[in-house]
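Study this one:
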Amino acid sequence: MASQLQREIDKLRKSVLTLGALVEEQLRLTFEVVRTHDVETAARVVDGDLEIDLMEIDVEEDCLKLLALYQPVASDLRMIIAVVKINTTLERVGDLAVNVARHAADMASHERPGLTFDLRNLIDKAQCMFSAALDSLMKGDADLARDVVAADDEVDDLDDELNRELRAAMRDHPEWVDGLMSLLYISRYIERLADHATNIAEDVVYVIDGEIPRHHVKRQAAEARQRSGGEA
């Protein structure tokens, strides 16, 4: 039974990686829309979301079947739990891709801002984080997963900086407000993409090492507050 369970888990892992590759292609098309504002490419992204949704349902059902049939424990259980969470995260990234594509395509009908904003750097870093998170799952590489988690702060800083620039531009150029608002939404969605990549990476660490990095950070913060309160 153990060998059969392992074969089923290997199939499950391949399925979620296949879903990840599909989502990654969606992101590639989405960021092409950000660059070109092409309505037809945006429509391809929207249409492609159905395949992601259906695959996400299939993977979740496979996870539930394994839990019911084999009642796995230890590392096998961690892997199935992680796949359930990663599967949901990938579906959400697919939704983000649709939202970004729609806003980027919508900019074609608005007056374009006559200013340059460094959206490319934010996109590149978030895409790299997402790809690295999937690679860490494929390779079973906890160190690579931790690198993804550590990179999230840099994306947050870039998003904050871009948000300040966009809001300042709105005040100075109200005639561009519609296009600037679309850029603001796109920036926020890309920051969420980085958050989702971080979640995937944390799930990989959980599978390999049995720990959840964000829980460790929260526990340290809570203990620090307790010590501070005790000293007071």
Q: What stands out?
A: The helical segments are 2-36, 39-70, 74-106, 119-139, 142-172, 177-209, 213-231. Residues 2-231 form a domain with the Methane Monooxygenase Hydroxylase; Chain G, domain 1 fold (CATH 1.20.58.220).
